[in-house]
Amino acid sequence: MADESEKVELEEGTLLLALEHENLEEFRKTFLDQHPYDQAKFFIKIDAELRMIVYQFLSPNEMATIFENIEIDNDEYEMYLAEMDPTFAAQMIGKMYVDDAVDVLNELDKEQVTNYLKIMDDEAAEDIRELLHYEEYTAGSIMTTEYISIHAHQTIHSAMQILKKEAPNAETIYYVYVVDEDNKLVGVISLRDLIIHDDETMISELMNERVYSVNVMEDQEEVARKIMDYDFLALPVLDNEKHLLGIITVDDIVDVIDEEASEDYSKLAAVSDVDSIDRGPFSAARKRLPWLIILLFLGMFTASLIGRFEETLNKVAILAVFIPLIAGMAGNTGTQALAVAVRRITLGDFEEESKLKLIFKEAGTGLITGSICGIVVTIVVFIWQKDIFLGLLVGISILATLTVATIAGAFIPLIMHKLKVDPAVASGPFITTINDIISILIYFGMATMFMQYLL
Amino acid sequence: MADESEKVELEEGTLLLALEHENLEEFRKTFLDQHPYDQAKFFIKIDAELRMIVYQFLSPNEMATIFENIEIDNDEYEMYLAEMDPTFAAQMIGKMYVDDAVDVLNELDKEQVTNYLKIMDDEAAEDIRELLHYEEYTAGSIMTTEYISIHAHQTIHSAMQILKKEAPNAETIYYVYVVDEDNKLVGVISLRDLIIHDDETMISELMNERVYSVNVMEDQEEVARKIMDYDFLALPVLDNEKHLLGIITVDDIVDVIDEEASEDYSKLAAVSDVDSIDRGPFSAARKRLPWLIILLFLGMFTASLIGRFEETLNKVAILAVFIPLIAGMAGNTGTQALAVAVRRITLGDFEEESKLKLIFKEAGTGLITGSICGIVVTIVVFIWQKDIFLGLLVGISILATLTVATIAGAFIPLIMHKLKVDPAVASGPFITTINDIISILIYFGMATMFMQYLL
């Protein structure tokens, strides 16, 4: 058995050739044998001309599978759809798993969505309409309605019949949900249990009545956290009256976790998004410039602050030498405290009462790290510059700066969280600037006050 | 139906009371009805005295379930095990899923491991020994040997018999692996397919021969990437001769993704690890100080570099005002480029040839962002200080700095990757210092050269 990835690579040539020669049979034979993710990778690699042939060679259903597995930027969906015949595109969307279909439609204009839904067959259109109105990043926006539900007063045998019938269309068949006559969730049973137990056992005897679920309005991060903690393969989504609306499966959650982690990371680095898609320098520059320009003006503000101490600087030029050191240390310790706070908030294990505790803890941490770094700096500067006053000035500045910067690093994301702003937004740039300002005020303030000892 | 999380919270009181009154029956009734993750959460919350009662109230098998679901720091495993009777502890480890058992044993001394394996029943000990020697962070270290395998010349009916028998012990029953007489992997079949199709169908007719797999030595990040991309619930692990050794399930991968993302994030923020466990300020300070001390000395080096330009500074004190701006901008743009490179390397979609392309792209991006920021700065400084030469000096410094810093940000992680060092290690501190140095050399170098225009 050759390695699967190698095989897929080898088949790329065959596929390209088949498309160029418009050899339908050869293309379909090789292509449809591949995993949908590999199909999607091939599809986004080829150019528009060849894609036009693919649209002719595949059915809407086959294209739907590709679209379910595609990993592209949101605006690229529109491009691909525009290339297709509108009827073909509408049929394809109708054939997709409804959660994926909604993801695609969410990227289009309202008008376009209405058009596609009009052409689509009614049942699919209705399923999609139901999901379309959920707000982004909520459980409702990532759930699918293609689950399997049974009733408590059935036997395993009759439940398995339903399962066999619905398996081809369900997103997962590994959990089966038990609902009452009002479609309220009353239990869950795993396929594992259905298989192990006797055919005549009643579902009510076997089902687990302690079902974890999420509300349809819940944040997707909460959902991800629950699935991760409890190692679920899927989680049911309920409305406020406990009606079963849909399910969220682990594969969608894996994407959420990856996205959210990338997002936190990107924000700490002050990039709008760090993705794997290869871009040209202009497109990359366009994405990074907004941050850089903001940071530039924040930096100018800091510069103007130093400018106010020009007189002090004129008298004791050596002070300038330590500006990057002090500002840098403030930035570093602030970022550390910030990262801890942001992660804790993201991870969600955060109770109201413990916020104050976090601030106190960070104040303590800042005081300890500040004292130690301050002592080290005092000694090093004294040895280097042979000036104990300069050493003390820099050392005490470091102590004060580190303490304040650490508290600020923890405090700001907590405030953001309170204000319902994603705390990760604040990260890198904001905290660094605040800490630059704090450190410069402390350093030059003290230097100006104790000028006579430095001259 | 009350919300499950609320119910668990209410039961906490019942459980505590039952333990305090040593009411075995009440405790077991409530506790064993909970989800293992909730059991684990309760267990790590209570104090040592009550834990001693739990060890008496539960069987090794029941404790094993808790330990499989526990989320604690690695050194805490040792503490809990030390509390238990050694025979009880050994039996418990023997009852755990073998991958989880190995995770626990990896945290202990060699001697302790040998002792536990000696007391344990032989079959369990052997399974564990087999997995213990795989290197950390490889596929082998996170796989489990509790999979289900069948042969191609069986019918669905006979395969289902095997499945029913092995289901209680297997980590997943949703994929069944098909092996030949040498235990080489030849195919895979999903439980979904087994259920949908006729009982008399031969496995060979139905199985998918294009099985994605990973080598036992492969990095766990690669495994995570594959499972995420292809939406697998499990992935088989093979040796170099394609023998089936074990499987890795999606729930373990979710943890890997979360860990790796946290790791990258932590390193960008220069903290050793950002976890959700609450620590005191001393413990937090101890974790952050090593980074801060390193950064402090790197900062002193930068300061000494500026010290060499003291004469220039003495003549034109205003130069000092722009040090944080220029160094800060270099740090920002470097971190952006670094984050993009690190994420791309972590995500694994990186071919040898494209490295040069990335560098060129980043050089282009740096030139574009540098030019725009440079022009903005020149104008602002000119308006503010009414000195076109100073404006040009700062502007050109920004242009040069941003270009070089962007290239450095992309180049350094690539070199790290080449040297087989985790590129995320380099991030924050390293890149910022290099860029501080570069920016100061450029800025003061130019200032000293064109001194006559500034006076």
From TrEMBL, chains A, B:
Pfam families: CBS, MgtE, MgtE_N
TM segment ranges: 289-306, 318-342, 363-384, 390-416
Origin superkingdom: Bacteria
Residues in CBS domain copies: 143-205, 207-263
Membrane topology (UniProt): Multi-pass membrane protein
Keywords: CBS domain, Cell membrane, Magnesium, Membrane, Metal-binding, Transmembrane, Transmembrane helix, Transport
Localization per record: Cell membrane; Membrane
PROSITE patterns: CBS
Ranges in a coiled coil: none
Subunit structure of this chain's protein: Homodimer.
Role summary: Acts as a magnesium transporter.
Family of this protein: Belongs to the SLC41A transporter family.
Name under which the protein is recorded: Magnesium transporter MgtE
Classification of source organism: Bacteria, Bacillati, Bacillota, Bacilli, Bacillales
